[in-house]
Amino acid sequence: MTEYTPKERLYRALKKMDVDRMPAVCFTQTATVEQMEACGAFWPEANEEPELIAKLGEAGHTVVGYEAIRVPFDITAEAEFFGCKLKAGTREQQPSVVGHVAATPEDVDKLKDFKFGGDARVDRVIKSIAILKEKYGDEIPIIGSMLGPFSLAQHLNGDNWFMGLMTDDPVVQPLIDMTTDFCVRYAQEMVKAGACCMVIIDPTASYELLGDQFYEKFAIPYHKKIADAMKALDVPTVLHICGDTTKGIYLMDRAGVEGISVDQKVNVKAASEAAKEAVIVGNLDPVQLLWKGTPEDVKAECAKVYADGARIVTVGCGTVSATPTANLKALVEFAKESKY
């Protein structure tokens, strides 16, 4: 079988095409303190400056050995772009959203006329991708990631979001339409800068929280708009939703994404059987296994997850910043030793 470049291998694996082996990649947050120490780029500054974002993202490749570079590292830049107040992050922890800006349809109207190309943090993420693209060209794939439209709408609206879904609050529809439009355009800007794979991180758009009816109404159509926009650019998309999404995989599969990233609570065998279109990626436990386990534990669990049907074995949620590099390298080694 032909030996592929990392970019070709990732594309082909997500497209269910023949490939020589599993790509060694991570679709969720990649950065750790050990990587920061190795490359000299630390949070919180490495969440802010394009050169540092690129440098820390690159450490996943140069220090750990991932065959892709994934940026950014947190899921607050999108809400910050629209004016939400943040609690600052630290070297070990990410920032969080603590203030909201869209309680009414009138508030949403004020947010619709957004533009890229300024100096907001999302613009700096785009610049970091351009920096990485200039350095690596087509040698190493660059994975762009963003908060999904449902969770972004919740960040903008606040604690009333879920109640608003059930009570037909008039802010709900215009808000999720607007956040979806933002996500599509943000993804397009990242691809224009050099990203060749897109990840939608939509943690609160969970089947566990929403159930069939609300997930089908408020998640699938909006994820599909992003996936369709990426298909038009021949860019594969991976969707990650936190929690036990096992029973909702058949619905996630309708979104048109190439990959469904599942966390450690998911039954991978059941998920692989339920997904008819997308491939299942995941679902190594980032805490008990990758942070607290050993390289031998990691390889053993990789083998189990692979046998259960994951096409790409990788981290099941965001990597804990204290994770030892040795454990992540064990994941990379397993991928490079695998055969399809």
TrEMBL record:
Q: Which cofactor does it need?
A: Zn(2+)
Q: Which keywords does UniProt give here?
A: Metal-binding, Methanogenesis, Methyltransferase, Transferase, Zinc
Q: Would the keyword Zinc be found if you checked this record's keyword annotation?
A: yes
Under SUPFAM superfamilies, the record lists: UROD/MetE-like
Q: Which residues form the Uroporphyrinogen decarboxylase (URO-D) domain?
A: 5-337
Q: Which GO terms describe its molecular function?
A: dimethylamine methyltransferase activity; metal ion binding; uroporphyrinogen decarboxylase activity
Gene3D superfamilies per the record? 3.20.20.210
Instruction: Specify whether Zinc is a keyword of the entry.
Output: yes
What are its GO biological-process terms? Answer: methane biosynthetic process from dimethylamine; methylation; one-carbon metabolic process; porphyrin-containing compound biosynthetic process
NCBIfam families (UniProt xref) = methylcob_mtaseMtbA (NF041608), mtaA_cmuA (TIGR01463), PRK06252.1 (NF004889)
Q: What is this protein called?
A: Methylamine-specific methylcobalamin:coenzyme M methyltransferase
Species name? Methanimicrococcus blatticola
Q: What is the lineage of its organism?
A: Archaea, Methanobacteriati, Methanobacteriota, Stenosarchaea group, Methanomicrobia
